[in-house]
Amino acid sequence: TEPAMAATVGSIIFVVVVVGGMGSLGGAFLASLLIGIVQTFAVALDYSVGGTLGALGIRLPASAAGNSLLKLTLSQVAPILPYLLLVLMLIFRPRGLLGTRDG
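RE: above sequence
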């Protein structure tokens, strides 16, 4: 292995462990599959962020039409999607996918 490998993949491994649930091997496996699929599809699909939000039924105000963030493609934002998933997981399910409740 490469000596600098921890700096390269360390942050994504942290995301996988937290999303899967601390101490859950099955959860880490499920989270790694989920994150891999999300990143792969985000790179493969050539949709803009605004178009994707519209397809999901989220209507934006007319003043947001010129926003440059909405013109980004999903492949351009694919590297930040695991971290977005991490934030959403910590908000809605803090113990992870298959984590157990301590207590």
